[in-house]
From TrEMBL:
Phylogenetic placement of the source organism: Bacteria, Bacillati, Actinomycetota, Actinomycetes, Kitasatosporales
Species name: Streptomyces similanensis
Protein name in UniProt: Uncharacterized protein
Superkingdom of origin organism: Bacteria
Length: 105
């Protein structure tokens, strides 16, 4: 269930966007476009996301599938690089390339 937009960011009927009280335009549902919540433009926040692999090796590919298919395209290179490093570190018996292929198939 999606959360409703905050009342602090009223809808402007003239242009169809929502704004903070100081006039900064906002995306009220960033998760719908695959981005974590963040003030990217207004506060120059970096556009990044941090992976947290599940504890069980059999859960890694399904987790990555959900993350990668739900992510904004601009985040994919970083997510794949993080996944490769984390799989090698956290699950040395798994082949990162095989797991990523499973996640992306």
């Amino acid at each position: 269930m999606w959360q409703r937009p905050a009342k602090e960011c009223p809808f402007n009927k003239a242009d169809g966007f929502r704004y903070t009280p100081d006039g900064t335009p906002v995306c009220v549902h960033p998760e719908r476009v695959g981005l974590p919540v963040g003030a990217y433009k207004s506060e120059n926040a970096p556009l990044t996301v941090e992976l947290h692999l599940p504890p069980g090796p059999s859960d890694v590919a399904p987790y990555l599938h959900d993350v990668l298919y739900g992510a904004a395209p601009v985040l994919l290179d970083d997510l794949i690089s993080q996944a490769h490093e984390l799989i090698r570190r956290d699950f040395p018996t798994l082949d990162p390339l095989t797991v990523l292929r499973q996640a992306l198939s």
